Each structure stands twice: as C-alpha cells, then as structure tokens.
Amino acid sequence: MTNIAILGFGTVGGGVYEVINASRKKPLCEVNIKYILDLRSFPEHPIGDRVTNDFSKIISDESVKIVVETMGGDTVAYKFSLEALKAGKNVVTSNKAVVDKYGEELERVARENGVVYLYEASVGGGIPIIAPLNNCFAGDEILRVAGILNGTTNYILTHMQSDGKSLDEALKVAQELGYAEADPHADIAGLDSARKIAILSGIAFGKYISYNSIPHIEGIENVTSEDIALADQLGCVIRLVAVAERVGDKASILVAPHLVGKNSLFHAIREAFNAVSVTGSAVGEVVFYGQGAGSLPTAAAVCGDIERVISNRVSDSERVPCEEGFILNGDGNSKFITLANGKKYRYFE
Ligand code: HSE
Questions:
Q1: Which of 21, 60, 105, 310 is the most buried (most CB within 10 A)?
Q2: How many angstroms separate the alpha carbon of residue 180 from the centre of ligand 1?
Q3: Is-catalytic flag, 196?
C-alpha cells in the first residue's frame, strides 16, 4: 500500500479520488488516500473523514510517499510543493502555473532530495504528452510542437460556429462543465495555452522556458462570428493554436487564433478536446488527441504519474536555462491569410 495526500479537493483532486477508487489495477488500486488538504469540509464524501486543514500533519507523516497538488494558484501551491519535496516526498501536480513559474527550481529540489516532481496533467488534460516528449522522442530532434491546448476556448469556438452562441454564452457553459480556469481570462486571453506551450517547448528544446518569454500571446477576444463564417467559406475553422518551432538554432513561439485548413488534423478538433502535434526530424509528424480538460481526464493523467512514481518508471532529461535571444521576436515560419472582411489570420497546416 502507498499512502498519498491530495492537496485541494476540487475538480481535479476529487477526480483523483474517483479514478483511484475505480481502479482494479495494481499498484493504483492499492493507493491509500491518507489525507485531503482543503479548507472546506466534505461530510457526505466517502473519505470526508480524511480532510485536514493542517499541512504540517502531512509533511511530518513519514508514511506519505506522494503529495498530489491539485490546488491551483501559484503561491500556496508552490510553497507546499517545495516543502513536500524537501521533506523527501514525491510531488505530482496538474498545476501549470506552478510548473511554468517554478518548475526549474522544483525539479532541482526533487533531484537533490532523491524524489520526483511530475506534471503530466498540467498540459493537455488526459493526453499523455510530457512523458512521451521526455522519453519516446528523446532520440529525435524536435522541429515543431503545436497544439490546441485550451479546452475552454476550443469549446467556445466550436459553439460560436455550430449553434451561433456568443463568446460569453459559450464560456458560461464551459465554466459549468468545469473546463474553465477560476479566472477565465487566462483561457480567453491565451495565457493558459501559453503556459502549456512553454512547458512543452521547454521539454522539446531541452530548456526551461517561461510563458513570460513568449513574445506573441493573443487570445480569442477579437474572433467574431463573421470571421468564423468567412473562414468556413474558405474551408477553414478558427482555432486557438500554440506553435513552437525551430528556426535555425533558435525558436519561434506564439499563441494566436489560426485559420486551420481541412488538411490539418486540427480541423477536426471540436468541443473541449485538445490535440498536440509533434514533428521530429526523423519521425515526421505525430499527433496526440484527447480530452484536454475536465475532472476525470485530468485525474487520469495525475494517476498515471502516481503509478509511475510507485513503479519507479520515471525518466526525464535534464534541461538548461533558456539563453537570452533563443526565442525570436516575430513569427518564425507563420503564413497569413486575409479574410474577406480584411482581418488577417495566421494559417495552420
Ligand atoms: N482551463 C483549462 C482548459 C483547463 O480549458 O483547457 C485544463 O488545463
């Protein structure tokens, strides 16, 4: 049996309980959720008696091997993750804000303490992409990582097209379905996608890249129903795409709404689904597709990390800080198309 603690019993933390509870596979079915850290109480929940608001209890309990951080935010979540690693506990998280801001430090502290800091669920919800980038693609040179990485905006763009909903109407439903961030501005303005492409491109290019260093982050605020209809006439859909590509020995990274043509697999990505395309110099293009947000898909990725910690099957590549000038200002290899109303969009293929 492996004892774990879940910090934050919201959408993802609650999902982690569900996935573990339903598991019939060793070692996951033998995981014991010993503590749940939350300020709320859950008297009706089957393991509501494990809730505490005292983090020191978790830190001082040597039987807790894994701390699952599903709190959100980047202050207390960071502090608790750091303390847990220093106390010799493995940390598994879905928190892209903490990974983006403090990943370099937390991975270093994990190494120093002989434990691991894993964050598969921080990008692409239930899609396995971090472990494949770290492992399966390790022998190839990555030329491009591109993705529809935000379920909320994809849901909104899908419904603006299919049933003429306004951005605000579609956002409201995405919030009710548990896809959106606590502050949905991060979704709509492209910041959530930027954090995710920063994490992915950092691994792909062997560096630590923060979303702060991405020169162009544009959300979907200015995408109109007219743009979507005009794009449709060209056989395209509009999608929020994050692109990181090699340009010589540097990289171009951006987040922006793109016209996506029929020949791209991204054309078929609807609702809150995500897709990630990885192009390697030897392998060519590989595409990952799946549920990019929501309780159970994200929890499944968290549980995959828990399983890998217990089975001791973790391998990642050490990275270096991102040197000044590595990320180019500008558009790299972007192509543009002008719609009949004069609005210019990048084209994704
Ligand atoms: N708000 C995020 C999204 C949640 O919509 O994709 C998953 O990271």
A1: 310
A2: 6
A3: yes
